[in-house]
Design the sequence.
């Protein structure tokens, strides 16, 4: 479908979305969605100067469940380029030359991802606990990708967009354009899939060696990740996580950093639309190895005593802040159309007017009973 949104400014955006992405990868194809995103961008090489000349910013990204190609700029220039942009994306045919060149770049990005302490722990934890290789893929698969893989993926998943979102003063129309939702084609081939959550767990596999863990150097600091699966209340737990973690005035920051001096920063991430629509919540931080137990116990103390650490005043501050962000996003919608392409169950904007302080306390008590993983214990001792 084509969704046209009227720009409230002189700025526009154009987004081409292909659903599926990593969810449609099979063994031997881990990382192919990300590689194909890079390859399709080759189609724009000869018009990059023109787009730059007219102030058009463009890029692409690979999420777990979608690949998105996008550009933003002044309405008049976005309008001028959007037909060409769409034609170039849909008409790309992979070549051996492009493949071999881009594999080198992807492998460098792969190394960078596993040279970052938090990133490497996060990516390895997804592999070990849930059998998910994420967009970055698996190194041996990337090294062995053949042109036939790229041609097959391109034909199956990148010839019909799932949705096109145009933010402009003029509607975008394209007669005869075909669309596809790209439901996971390989889910039936996953013999070890959890029937309820549709992801692979390590302890349910016949051969644990099927999960490949990347090793990094032994860092002097320790990475800690707390994680849990969110089956419902997805957008409420996103809001509640903002209340708990976001900003130096948040309960976890004040307790762990300002009062106890155990950490420099702490954050969270939610991978949405996993399997049957669940989310994987991950809280992450780093600390000196000697403080590892103190950090985990301090987090547990806060989340097990929500009534003590999470106040109604804090709830109101975050709620007002998010409402302001939503107003800003409506003005700058040319630059972020997430709410147009993400299921409502993951959108905080859908519950911001109705969510209550009691809702926040309820989901924190329910979902922040986290499992904890430290890099040294999880991977270096395997």
Sequence:
């Amino acid at each position: 479908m084509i969704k046209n949104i009227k720009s409230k400014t002189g700025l526009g955006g154009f987004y081409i979305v292909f659903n599926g992405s990593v969810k449609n990868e099979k063994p031997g194809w881990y990382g192919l969605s990300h590689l194909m995103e890079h390859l399709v961008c080759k189609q724009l090489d000869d018009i990059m100067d023109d787009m730059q000349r007219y102030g058009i910013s463009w890029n692409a990204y690979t999420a777990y469940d979608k690949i998105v190609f996008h550009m933003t700029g002044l309405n008049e220039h976005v309008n001028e380029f959007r037909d060409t942009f769409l034609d170039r994306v849909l008409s790309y045919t992979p070549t051996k030359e492009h493949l071999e060149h881009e594999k080198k770049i992807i492998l460098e990005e792969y190394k960078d991802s596993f040279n970052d302490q938090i990133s490497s722990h996060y990516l390895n934890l997804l592999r070990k606990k849930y059998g998910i290789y994420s967009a970055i893929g698996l190194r041996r698969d990337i090294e062995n990708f053949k042109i036939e893989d790229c041609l097959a993926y391109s034909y199956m998943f990148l010839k019909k967009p799932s949705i096109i979102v145009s933010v402009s003063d003029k509607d975008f129309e394209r007669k005869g354009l075909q669309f596809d939702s790209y439901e996971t084609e390989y889910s039936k081939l996953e013999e070890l899939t959890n029937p309820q959550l549709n992801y692979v767990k390590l302890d349910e596999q016949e051969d644990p060696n099927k999960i490949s863990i990347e090793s990094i150097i032994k860092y002097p600091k320790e990475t800690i990740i707390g994680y849990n699966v969110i089956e419902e209340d997805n957008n409420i737990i996103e809001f509640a996580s903002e209340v708990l973690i976001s900003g130096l005035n948040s309960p976890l920051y004040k307790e762990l950093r300002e009062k106890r001096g155990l950490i420099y920063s702490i954050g969270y991430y939610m991978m949405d639309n996993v399997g049957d629509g669940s989310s994987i919540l991950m809280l992450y931080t780093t600390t000196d190895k000697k403080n590892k137990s103190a950090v985990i116990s301090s987090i547990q103390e806060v989340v097990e005593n929500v009534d003590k650490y999470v106040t109604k005043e804090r709830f109101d501050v975050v709620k007002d802040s998010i409402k302001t962000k939503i107003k800003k996003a409506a003005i700058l919608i040319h630059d972020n159309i997430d709410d147009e392409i993400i299921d409502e169950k993951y959108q905080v904007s859908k519950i911001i007017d109705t969510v209550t302080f009691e809702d926040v306390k309820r989901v924190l008590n329910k979902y922040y009973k986290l499992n904890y993983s430290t890099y040294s214990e999880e991977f270096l001792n395997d």
